Amino acid sequence: MRLVQITDCHLLADPEGTSRKGTPLRQLHAIVDRAKAIRPDIVLVTGDIAQDETPAAYRHARRAFATLGCPWFWIPGNHDQPELMDECHPFHEDLDLGDWRVLLLNSRISGQPGGELGQDQLQRLAWQLEADERPTLIALHHPPLEVGSVWMDAIGLKDRDALWQTLAPYPQVRALFCGHIHQAFAAWQGLVAVYGCPSTSDQFLPRSHEFATDEASRPGLRVVDLRGKTLATWVERVDL
């Protein structure tokens, strides 16, 4: 079973619209082409699909992802409008991958750059884990731990301590995958791996005290291979 994570597309209604360092839609098409070449079974898009929160931006994304040749699923980021996303392509909370499962969480807080899951969603997460002991992956937009950038850590997941307390009794949780940070990232919280992913648009400079883009990095995606009960993952980047 091969998953691909794509994140932080920051698309605009104008297909030729530009970001700080490039053209988001053109860069997304390059990432989708790379994803198709590595033949995923499923694609997870972990938020910030749109920059301008327009229906047209989500339609651009849907048309691009429709060419993948496999099922794809998305969650909202802080720049997104969940109602427009759900109308364009419905949300899912629980993905059955046979020997594995994926739980998709919504960490968006309306009007704020930081994220929060909230008590109701954490309680539902505990119920989901209590009911199924299969190896589990969790996807959310905001990073569930500090990544070492002062400005980014200030707008991460506010209730990350509550999340880890919720997960503590459930050893089947193997890894969490996040967006938001626009960079490759890997760390451990106890026995649980946490992975970040490059953006399809601009890249952020790791371990910066203030906001800065990474001039040397390229857009990328994360590949996740599930073999039996083992997980292997790596990042691939594209040249533009």
Automatic annotation (TrEMBL):
Q: Does the keyword section mention Ligase?
A: no
Q: Which family does it belong to?
A: Belongs to the cyclic nucleotide phosphodiesterase class-III family.
Q: Which InterPro entries match?
A: Calcineurin-like_PHP, CNP_phosphodiesterase-III, GpdQ/CpdA-like, Metallo-depent_PP-like
Q: Which residue range or ranges hold the Calcineurin-like phosphoesterase domain?
A: 1-183
Q: Which Pfam families match?
A: Metallophos
One Gene Ontology MF term: metal ion binding
Record keyword NADP present: no
Mind telling me what this protein is named? Metallophosphoesterase
Q: Which UniProt keywords are present, listed alphabetically?
A: Hydrolase, Iron, Metal-binding
